[in-house]
Task: structure prediction
Amino acid sequence: MKKWQIAAGGKAKKSGHTRDNLIALLLTNRGVTTKQDIEEFLTPPNPINLTSKDVGIAPAALKKALARIQRAIEKKESVIVYADYDADGITAGAILWETLYRAGAHVMPYIPHREKEGYGLSVAGIDAVRAAHDPSLIITVDHGITAWEKVEYAKKLGIEPEKLKVGLKTPIIGNTYSAASPIGLCAVLDVAKPGEKILLASFGSGAGSDAFAITVCDLVEERRKIGPSLDSFVQNKEYLSYALYAKHRRKLKSL
Result:
């Protein structure tokens, strides 16, 4: 059992642990000692009025981050808000996830497992996120600013996202289980050029253990003229009610 001890940086006065003494102790232990620092700490400015300079972020870096998020929204990439399990991490993650979701992003929140993945961005957490959502963009919240090794690990995983996203249709149409691989292959063949090579490998639920190396032949452009592309089917989709879905699945029987 842990025994917590109060830091001795600012011992309470002999008059006892009054409210003012405890506040002074906490502020001192956090290095907040001047009148201006105390005022800003206890009555912080409205976040809406803060600029990137106020929080130590270069305007150019902020502009780059916003452009990357906007591109992810426009191209319907899979995005993860990688938060944390403490109070400010969960609330910050929820705020950012809801904001991105309302902006049209295909985004999911992620809270790392406290015992298996630990605090902050970790290799185990990145692997878990990839297995569950296969994102092309991970946004850390409440941590990750100094996790350079983990960021580099995330960048080095597999093929570039730009080469993968053509065949990743589950973020758009949902989990199709074992059909995800042939659907992705169809999407790639819709844009592939003769002579290019395609690596087809299943993963996730319903996946097998096989992988296929395919070389696109000269007939691909001719065959594409026979029927519509996969994206055209997706764009002309028709939403089914659960009742109609259940009927097609023969879960409902007419009396």
Q: What stands out?
A: The chain has three domains: 10-44, 53-163, 167-248. The chain has a mean pLDDT of 79. Residues 10-44 form one domain.
